[in-house]
Amino acid sequence: IPHKAQATTNHQSNIHATMTSYTTPAPKFDPSASGAVYKLASGHDMPIVAYGTFRSDNNEVGGAVIEAIKAGYKHFDLAHVYGNEKEIGAAFKKAFDEGLGK
Q1: pLDDT value at position 84?
Q2: What does the DSSP 8-state code read for residue 13?
Q3: What is the C-alpha to C-alpha distance for residues 32 and 59, in angstroms, rounded to an integer?
Q4: What is the distance between the alpha carbons of residues 63 and 70, in angstroms, rounded to a whole number?
Q5: pLDDT tens-digit series, residues 13-72
Q6: Strand 51-52 and strand 76-77: pairing?
Q7: pLDDT band at residue 11, thresholds of 50, 70 and 90?
Q8: Is 62 exposed, middle or buried, given 0-12, 13-18 or 19+ CB atoms closer than 10 A?
């Protein structure tokens, strides 16, 4: 039976555990903080908050992904069915080539 991911919170971070609607961001959220994560079966942590790319406009999503990486996002919601993998792949390549997101 595969291990289930468990949500943990690092109380020393500045992430507030506040429930909000989809239109209201949580206060003082720092996506680069090491707070709210899922502990994977591998032992690695995966941030709970992800940057979504579903229904993103062509010729805009690549730049948005670059800005999300600059803002500190480490977890991205991606899927082949979104139809934007080429543009997002190019954005990731650019970000890695420029040393962003480390």
Answers
A1: 92
A2: S
A3: 26
A4: 11
A5: 444 444 444 444 444 556 556 567 888 889 888 888 889 999 888 888 999 999 999 888
A6: parallel
A7: very low
A8: buried
Tally of CB atoms within 10 A around 34? 13
**pTM (two decimals):** 0.61
38 in active site: no
Task: Report the relative pairing of strands 6-8 and 37-39 from DSSP bridges.
Answer: antiparallel
Given 22, 38, 51, 82, the catalytic residue: 82
Length of the chain: 102
Tokens representing 84 are 């934007």
DSSP per-residue codes, 49-85: --EE-TTPPTTTHHHHHHHHHHHT---EE--GGGS-H
- Is 31 within 8 Å of 49 (Cβ atoms)? yes
Question: Distance between CA atoms of 47 and 30, rounded to whole angstroms?
Answer: 11
